[in-house]
Write a structure and sequence with these properties.
This protein is α/β, with parallel strands linked by helices. The protein has a single domain, classed as Alpha-Beta Barrel (TIM Barrel). It has an 8-stranded parallel β-barrel with strand order 1-2-3-5-8-9-10-11, surrounded by 6 helices. The protein has a two-stranded antiparallel sheet with strand order 6-7. The longest helix is centred in the middle third of the chain and has 19 residues.
Length: 278
């Protein structure tokens, strides 16, 4: 099991420098990864929003070994060749410490003219993945799809990580299409369709079912990550007891939601200082 923190794209109380400091502290305190969500307009008070890739680049230059990534980038609202340039640059700045999380995106993308039909977005995601990987290959690449066209081009440099940067897919469980798509790549970041009581939290039983589903649809034996997340508090034993059922169910990452509401920045700071729940 590896342990990461998700930090807010709005900065810490709106301060981007404090966001970078929190990421540095996470590395110092033994966390394995720092992740940012990606939105044009971030949820929360005042919609304060910084750029994901510039923030991750700054974090890369001020850390040494912690993994950096997104959970997740809405690929249908991005140009895949532009994203390829950004992610490969970050991979070089971090010396090969990047994971790329991708998904369909959220309803607020509609504010910027994004495609809102989910089936269309899914088709764009699949095409975008092909283009993205082709552009990261460092080989001559061309593509003629419904949504994206690339006349022959060669993007250099290649990523530090070979054969490519790991790709995680996000999506709602127990919907099967997102998990089936994720099985073709390197990991799954599941969210939960809320039940009849409005509970949208991923449970260990969900992780167990996801692991079985992925195993049925996986076509190679390469390592595959299943990401669980939430908030833990209390002493080390209490936090460990919360996470252990997810480990037993098959999760390979626990991602702590370090997303302070106004006035909670110090509480989140202290939680990061406590270190991973292991």
């Amino acid at each position: 099991m590896k342990y990461g923190v998700v930090l807010p794209l709005s900065g810490i109380d709106g301060d981007i420098e404090r966001l970078i400091e929190y990421a540095q502290l996470a590395e110092e305190c033994g966390w394995d990864g720092v992740f940012l969500e990606e939105y044009f307009t971030y949820w929360g008070e005042n919609n304060l929003t910084y750029d994901t890739w510039l923030a991750l680049a700054a974090i890369a230059l001020r850390t040494e070994h912690i993994i950096l990534g997104t959970t997740v980038t809405p690929l249908p609202t991005r140009l895949p060749w532009k994203l390829a340039r950004e992610i490969v640059t970050l991979d070089h700045l971090s010396r090969g410490r990047v994971v790329l999380g991708l998904g369909l995106g959220d309803p607020q993308d509609r504010s910027f003219g994004g495609e809102i039909d989910m089936k269309t977005r899914a088709a764009m995601l699949d095409e975008g993945l092909e283009v993205l990987v082709g552009m990261m290959s460092g080989e001559p690449f061309s593509y003629q799809g419904t949504y994206y066209q690339v006349n022959e081009a060669t993007f250099m440099p290649r990523p530090v990580q070979q054969p490519r940067i790991p790709i995680w897919l996000g999506g709602y469980w127990p919907k099967k299409a997102p998990a089936r798509r994720a099985a073709r790549w390197d990991g799954f970041c599941p969210a939960k369709v809320p039940d009849e009581n409005g509970d949208g939290n991923i449970k260990p039983d969900d992780i167990r079912a996801i692991k079985d589903f992925i195993a049925q649809h996986r076509t190679n034996s390469e390592p595959f990550d299943i990401i669980a997340g939430g908030s833990t508090s209390g002493d080390s034993a209490t936090m460990r007891a919360h996470v252990e059922p997810f480990i037993e169910a098959g999760a390979t990452w626990w991602v702590e939601f370090a997303l302070p509401e106004p006035g909670e920045a110090e509480l989140v700071l202290e939680r990061i200082k406590q270190g991973p729940p292991k």
